[in-house]
Design goal:
It is built from 15 helices and 13 strands. The chain has 400 residues and is α/β, with parallel strands linked by helices.
Length: 400
């Protein structure tokens, strides 16, 4: 990358704690000293505190969180355009669902008017179609993707796994316009730093009952109802900790209780509804197993953090998690429609891990490091950015 440091506009969505702001913080840290950053999001609710701490400029734009309000979407679209025009970034990089949609609309609109945008990159933190999605929504998403591939100027499409990139290409393989765009694959990473410390050899990770932890905001994707049904089949001494946006709300607690079939007293005794958690490390340190029941994922950083912390993992067999489970030495696949069998697998895995916590934690961490460490990811991210910025028009490469 020649000339002065390139200026990158990162566009996220909801201002709360979630995977997207965690990813954007990793991008800023990985490219510190190499690039300058402006980060747009909806009103910050703690998720984007990192921006100014890492030397970036934070721009709040209502309407970037997913909603059905056309007025809010229009306001966000105008806001994105104003920031691009005012700051003339070298790269516009969209991440959240609404940000990706709006940036694409803006690029098509300006292309039709003979106007240009800076180079555009889009990261798919999960495919909008495929297994696990509602059929109608998936069908609509496929048509939208095909339309944008045809109408947009060439852009960079980033996927979190090779399987996701191949699925995207195979679904749209009849779209002749796909070849105009650049497809890249960069798997996610995690960086707890410092790591939770394992217990002494021969001792359980923490005193008390076995604890299962699950992270992720409430909603269709994470399928907490399946987690509730599995938990109902676990021994009565097992505890469950739920983290993520919306998991501390009374309505969510009631839905989880109904799905599990547990009475109010048992639910209060065995399940902790924590809601958003800014620092997951203390939670992981006290856990014995990480549970993921999602219907679909990109490649969840939360699961990689559990991997890095040395925890066993029980997960549904979905792309994004399949890549993690394939290299994790103590991972088990569970089926949503077999909750009793899933619970038996969780118990067996927990007992095996607790038999020698220190040795098993070290073994798991050793498997995580070569593929999912931040140092590996930083190297690959730097190379990827170089390839993307090489496509800049020559007149923009030395912009002050």
């Amino acid at each position: 990358m020649e000339g002065s440091s390139p200026h990158i506009l990162l566009i996220g969505g909801d201002g709360g704690l979630s995977g997207v702001p965690t990813y954007l913080a990793q991008v800023m840290r990985a490219l510190s000293g190499t690039a300058r950053f402006t980060v747009m999001s909806d009103r910050n609710a703690g998720g984007y505190d990192f921006v100014t701490a890492l030397g970036g400029q934070r721009v709040e734009q209502p309407g970037l969180r997913t909603s059905l309000s056309l007025l809010r979407a229009w306001q966000a679209l105008r806001g994105i355009g104003h920031v691009i025009d005012a700051q003339a970034p070298d790269l516009v990089w969209a991440h959240s669902r609404m940000a990706v949609l709006l940036v694409r609309v803006l690029s098509v609109w300006r292309r039709m008017r003979g106007q240009s945008l800076p180079p555009l990159a889009i990261t798919f933190h999960g495919l909008p179609f495929g297994p696990g999605h509602r059929p109608l929504a998936a069908a609509v998403a496929r048509r939208i993707e095909a339309g944008f591939l045809r109408l947009m100027p060439p852009c960079h499409l980033l996927f979190l796994s090779q399987a996701a990139a191949q699925t995207f290409a195979s679904v749209l393989n009849r779209n002749d316009h796909l070849s105009r765009h650049h497809l890249h694959v960069l798997e996610n990473c995690s960086d707890l730093d410092p790591l939770p410390q394992p217990a002494a050899p021969g001792l359980p990770a923490a005193s008390g009952p076995p604890t299962v932890v699950m992270t992720g905001r409430s909603g269709y994707q994470k399928d907490h109802a399946t987690a509730a049904r599995i938990f109902a089949h676990l021994p009565k001494n097992y505890q469950l900790v739920l983290c993520g946006g919306g998991t501390d709300l009374p309505a969510f607690r009631r839905r989880f209780g109904r799905a599990s079939g547990l009475d109010r007293a048992e639910l209060d005794r065995r399940v902790r509804f924590l809601g958003p958690v800014k620092d997951i490390r203390p939670v992981l340190q006290k856990a014995d197993l990480f549970l993921m029941t999602s219907r679909y994922e990109g490649m969840p950083i939360a699961a990689l953090e559990a991997f890095e912390a040395g925890l066993p993992i029980a997960t549904t067999d979905i792309p994004g998690m399949a890549e993690i489970a394939a290299v994790h030495p103590m991972a088990t696949l569970v089926q949503a429609d077999r909750p009793q069998e899933a619970a038996q697998r969780i118990v067996a895995l927990t007992v095996a891990w607790q038999s020698d916590v220190a040795a098993n934690t070290s073994r798991i961490r050793a498997a995580w490091a070569p593929r999912f460490s931040f140092s590996r990811w930083q190297r690959d991210m730097t190379l990827l950015l170089g390839r993307i910025l090489a496509d800049r028009p020559p007149q923009t490469r030395n912009r002050p």
